[in-house]
Specification:
2 domains; iron; mainly alpha; MerR family transcriptional regulator, redox-sensitive transcriptional activator SoxR; iron-sulfur; 2 iron, 2 sulfur cluster binding; binds FE2/S2 (inorganic) cluster
Length: 154
């Protein structure tokens, strides 16, 4: 018999198919990422198309995409059918951009850390890792604003 997206799966079947433990499925359900219905004896029943959502969650976990972002993405997807090829392309483009941004941040942090190697000052004023918001540091050392205001007073 051919599987239909409308097929219903027990939580045990979903766990076997995805490798995701039941406790994690309960958690994703509480977060509103997946949905189930109740059958006899209050048993959770999942539509087969929820497997696709669970696959997306697994991919997101692998990419270290936070569940809050997965929730944002899922908010734009219909709950009554599996994400389509086009849906997945849109989501993967979004997550690729996030990975690129994360890579840029990591490269910047790596460069800043390289500057610390052999330094060891741990200065709250000079160290970019300790004082990342020092937007004036590119305009020279020391109290830039004070120096500028004293120039203006001269
Ligand atoms: S420890 Fe000196 S610049 Fe970071």
């Amino acid at each position: 018999m051919r599987a239909s997206p409308e097929d219903q799966l027990t939580i045990g079947e979903v766990t076997r198919r995805t490798g995701v433990p039941a406790s994690a499925l309960h958690f994703y359900e509480r977060k509103g990422l997946i949905f189930s219905e109740r059958a006899g004896r209050n048993q959770r029943i999942f539509s087969r198309h929820m497997l696709r959502r669970i696959s997306l969650i697994m991919v997101a976990k692998r990419l270290h995409i936070p569940l809050s972002d997965v929730a944002e993405v899922f908010a734009g997807l219909p709950v009554d059918r599996a994400p389509t090829h086009r849906d997945w392309q849109r989501v993967s483009r979004r997550w690729k951009k996030q990975l690129e941004e994360r890579r840029r941040v990591l490269e910047r942090l790596e460069n800043e850390l390289t500057g610390c190697i052999g330094c060891g000052c741990l200065s709250m004023k000079a160290c970019l890792l300790l004082n990342p918001d020092d937007t004036l540091q590119g305009r020279g050392p020391g109290p830039v604003r004070l120096q500028q205001s004293s120039v203006a007073l001269e």
